[in-house]
Batch of 2 targets.
Target 1
Amino acid sequence: SQQGEEDPQALSIQEGENATMNCSYKTSINNLQWYRQNSGRGLVHLILIRSNEREKHSGRLRVTLDTSKKSSSLLITASRAADTASYFCATGLGGADGLTFGKGTHLIIQP
Amino acid sequence: SQTIHQWPATLVQPVGSPLSLECTVEGTSNPNLYWYRQAAGRGLQLLFYSVGIGQISSEVPQNLSASRPQDRQFILSSKKLLLSDSGFYLCAWTESGNTIYFGEGSWLTVV
């Protein structure tokens, strides 16, 4: 099954800086999604990018997708302490078996 | 609007005891339902998914089972817990097969 792997595993930056996380996957996909998980909580959907899209924006989030390289990036601009969380990419084919998640990038924003 | 409820939020169970985690979804009909497990510092592993009442698909062989007695109810069970069953269990649902919505999770510690 397709699988996303995030890079780096952990990232610590100063508040106000931009944070970039990358995701690589192995097989063809229908869409790629990014989720956020605060410590000890459920995952929250951030953004979905379809396989025929190259870039998508939502507020301070910018996602890119390069299907030729099987990779995606999530950029969080002007980071805030509240952005501290783990971020997961997930890939799927739109089928009933749902999404396959990577191990996540743990982002720490230093105030 | 749709909501998902999952309980209990935390539990500590002795080895060999039974387990029952429950999940219900409101505000939607015939959703696809999922149980994921997240070990400490790891990604999400899909355990079971269901596309309808009584229809359960298992992704990995394990000590757990799932049931869907009603359209919007999904139950994760075990007859005898193992130490390796400890983890964070997440129930989730989707309508379109794309974006997945998660519950708040259940922390299980087997001692």
Note: Residues 31 and 50 of chain A are 4 Å apart (CA to CA).
Target 2
Amino acid sequence: DVKVTQSSRYLVKRTGEKVFLECVQDMDHENMFWYRQDPGLGLRLIYFSYDVKMKEKGDIPEGYSVSREKKERFSLILESASTNQTSMYLCASSFVVGDTSNEKLFFGSGTQLSVL
Amino acid sequence: DAKTTQPPSMDCAEGRAANLPCNHSTISGNEYVYWYRQIHSQGPQYIIHGLKNNETNEMASLIITEDRKSSTLILPHATLRDTAVYYCIVRIRKGQGNLIFGKGTKLSVKP
């Protein structure tokens, strides 16, 4: 089975701290994603990457950056954490079959981040 | 905004079939319909997807109407472990990373 592992299940940080969320996948997938999930808002895409050292902004990239130095690892960085970044963060990876419309995502278990 | 419409909640008796509807009336000809589910405190899990034909796998069946404007996910024998939020998703933009998750249907399987 595909395994997407997020480094922490729960994190508590202070406002202004730099926060790193790590994600590793073991299936040699090209594409990796970071979402955040908030009650009533569903999942929202922050950033994604379709190759090493490549990144694309999603729907809500403000306040975040990402790093993809190796194919299996995709990191989400909060340069200066704020209380409105308290959320569940979900990492995913995917492979594409044929054209880019046929894509299957595999998610990690999530990191619940609280910024105080 | 998501281009799909799902009921916010449904109940199903354990052992019975759960039929979860989804409307996607603005779907384009080459857009797939995807279904994921999210069990409490876990990440979403892929269930099934299809383009035009009905699909079946070990988890569920997907029935897509001939005009492709709606679909139904069928869990043939629901168990308590199928209690989850089920998301019907249609890709609305080309390229990777563009699955838009709406609010889904909260399915409660009851003994």
Note: Chain A is about 0% helix and 55% strand.
